[in-house]
Description:
The protein has helices spanning 14-18, 45-48, 59-80, 85-93, 96-109, 111-115, 122-140, 144-149, 169-174, 193-201, 205-214, 223-236, 244-250, 259-272, 280-286, 295-308, 312-321, 330-343, 348-354, 363-375, 381-390, 399-410, 417-422, 431-444, 451-455, 459-484. By secondary structure, it is mainly alpha-helical. Helix 3 packs across helix 4 (85-93), helix 3 (59-80) packs across helix 7 and helix 10 packs parallel to helix 12. The protein is globular. Residues 1-57 and 153-190 have low confidence and may be disordered.
Amino acid sequence: MAMKTLSGSCSSDLSSLFRGAFYVTRTRFTSPEEVFSCRGIGFSTDSCVHESFNSRVDPSKLLSAEKKEAKSLLSLFLMQQGLSKAAAARTINKSDHFIDHLISRLHSAHKSRYLVGRELTTLEIRDTLNPYLQSLLKEHGNFMADLAKNFSKAPIEEKPALPVCQSHSSLDSKKPEAVSHVSAPSQAADPCPQLSYLLELGMDLEQIKLATRKYPSFANYSSERKIKPLVEFLLDLGVAKSEIPKILVQRPHLCGRSISGKIIPIMLYLEDMGVDKKQWAKVIFRSPGLLSLSRQKVQAVVNFLLELGLSGDSIGRVLTRYPRTVSYSVEDNLRPTAEYFKSLGVNVAIVVHRFPASLWLSIEGNLKPVTKFFYERGFSVEDIGTMVSRLPNLYALSLTGSLIPKWEFFLTMGYSKSELVKFPQYFSYSLEQRIRPRFALVKDLGLTIGLDCMLVRSHCGFEKVLKMKRKNMLADELSSHTESK
């Protein structure tokens, strides 16, 4: 049966693309920091896009040079997400297949340039790959390093994006945009079993293409022997059918894991570590990648949490409510963040118990900017540590969207900064829906109320406080007036 791909055909022999062509000299950058700046090393923009033709270039050397620059770009990208330089380097060393994937995208995007004998400049490589990395970041978030390291070993250009039989005109009518690259030479055959089953399951063609791009082997999985058994297993655990498509898009490789040999053993081990077996449906939906982890990986994180001082019950709570925690590297992510909190005098065990996601935060992207924000406004390191202990998710709040506007409004309220140290929860409330309107009522009545008293109570409770405070204020005024007579 003839097969097509959803992503279109591509050349099976890259060397033929370059055979006989001439290429442009490109400035070679040796560190990721140099990728984004020509001026920083003494070149102008014009010199970076110089287009004079050079002598014939060996395609293998060209490919090697492109891989080197792709690695530099990826290394810098990972460091911008919070990885240390050493951690980024270790990730790059384990990401050969992902680098090959980046190069294939580069060749696909600029095929015509190669055919006319034009080698891409460093800036052109950056402008092609960086937006793609940003799109992956939006989808995978903190799992970018894992995606790069665990990318399929299957060559992207030779794997079909999805097996499609010779015809499925009904699909063309339902999803014209998604199937625009799929040819349908015959109107007699039905859709392939894999495609039919996935669509029946609730996935659309864009989701199927996305899952296949992430993990090309997904295109070859049998619906009866691979996909359907996993789906039925998840349904038996209580996962809603409507949630299955998202899980398959996030972790298509789970279809290739043995349920009895791999998935169930890690689930039993996690239950021993405290995961609530009644909550598996929620746990898996929050972090389907948990089912692909090794026992050693989970044990390393559990040992680290014990080292921080968390009890067994607390660890069980973390693993159940925040399963993504075990997907992070202890040495590259969790320990450096914990050490940063300790430098502020914070009891890390308490912070992690109340807000486990604090361990996921980037030191450069989250912790240091927020610390600097408060320090520049006159708060001591001890003050900041106290605030974090009382509001563990303080560092997860947006500077521009939350902290700055609420701080600026706080300056108009007449409170001292010590009020924020005592009640940093002020920053967790909505400025427009709670802080501003409640303060307006307090001000109109001429009352003085602590931040906690003003914000913590429900609407009815707040009204009762206002009435009581108003009554006491009037009684005091009457008493003072009587005494003056």
